[in-house]
Amino acid sequence: MLKAEPLPLLATGAGKKAAVAVTGTILYGFVFAHAVGNLQVFLGPETINAYGAMLHSMPKALWGARLVLLGSVVTHAALAMNIYAGAKAARPTRYKVNAPIAEQSILQRYARQTMILSGPIVMAYLIFHLAHLTAGAVPGLPFKEGDVYGNLVRGFQNPAVAVSYIVANLLLGLHLFHGGVALFQTLGLRHPQWDARTRPIAFLVTAVVTFTNVIIPTAILTGLIGSELR
Ligand code: HEM
């Protein structure tokens, strides 16, 4: 008699989607906390440098968080691309009419359609960002260990760097917005009646993160903060 072997969870479509949703939630939580923490740049060098020193004073927690984030980014990107490739192979021609339930806004449609583009761009941005502000390894951008304020200001006084951050963070905003809506769908919370409540939540959290991430390079580039280091 044939015995049905259970599939490993990550070999199933539902398992992959659940893993993308769980890792996406972890990354969402990080970008939100990171954005709110970075706002301290507006309080001056002492405050933001003390915040950086506090994070570095807990090496075990820092490395634990780094490992969880790295694992989440890799799993999230690999499984999302795998799901996308699988869906494309299963249906090489696109649907003529493609209107998932209650998808109304242009922003939401644009966010969904650019997901496969915004994902890799955000990844490239992240690699640059770590080289810039964590490793201090970008030629031409001065970096001093522990001087978070100075590193930020000197980085964003360079227009090319500030504009790249702004563009990448706007794309990240689109990615987060669609990701938030998709997350509610994976959790089974997508329904025309609930959409009216869940979509504004995804929009609000994304708006806070995006506004913060765009306002910091903008404020430095325009000299609103950091002009004393020119
Ligand atoms: C304008 C927006 C942003 C600013 C001003 C900013 C600022 C910083 C700074 C100053 C550091 C170094 C902290 C330290 O070493 O003490 C850092 C690290 C980091 N940032 Fe950002 N960040 C921004 C956006 C982002 C975004 C959107 C992401 C994720 C997609 C991100 C992910 C990270 C990660 C993973 C680290 C490394 C943390 C570590 O392990 O040391 N950042 N960021």
How does this structure look, described?
By secondary structure, the protein is mostly helical. The chain has helices at residues 13-38, 45-56, 59-90, 106-113, 115-134, 148-156, 159-186, 192-221. Helix 4 packs across helix 7 (159-186). The longest helix has 32 residues, at 59-90. The radius of gyration is 20 Å and the shape is globular. The protein starts with 12 loop residues before the first helix and ends in a 9-residue tail after the last helix.
Total helical segments: 8
The tally of domains stands at 1
Rough shape?
A: globular
Major sheet description = none
Helix content: over 70%
Low-confidence stretches: none
Helix/strand-derived category reads mainly alpha
Task: Spell out the helices and strands N to C.
Answer: HHHHHHHH
Query: What fold name stands as the CATH topology?
Result: 3 helical TM bundles of succinate and fumarate reductases
Radius of gyration: 20 Å
Unique ligands:
protoporphyrin IX containing FE
Average pLDDT score: 87
